[in-house]
Amino acid sequence: MLETIRNQPFLVAILAGTTAQLLKVISFLMLEKRVNYRRFVQTDGSPNMHSAAFSALALAIGLRDGFGTMAFALAVCVMAIIVVDTMNVKNATSRQAEAILQIMDRLRKKTPARGARKAGLSYTPLDVFTGLVVGIAFALLVV
Description:
mainly alpha, 5 helices
């Protein structure tokens, strides 16, 4: 357990993800002029926590162990999968949720205007990109 706590790339990843979530709370406070602590645990929004954590992990491993190592190659592959899946899975989930909401409205005999209800689960490319930037910046500052 103590080795995990001393693992610098792991700590950088955890701190980058936590920082991304804190930035969501702060940006909501600045935009809405009120505190919403739920933003800290919500997965949607900018910056994306997943891309922040895994880009920080990959870069921290590269900076610490070298960019030619197997650990760095593995970390980059995992990061790429996480980033692509974050976009695809969340977008698919959002479309499914919107379809379910439309079905529920029709069953209740409410026929909403087209596209009136949105599930709001998907990430935009900007959310993922800002997460990548946060992760890279965090790794460069800490390692």
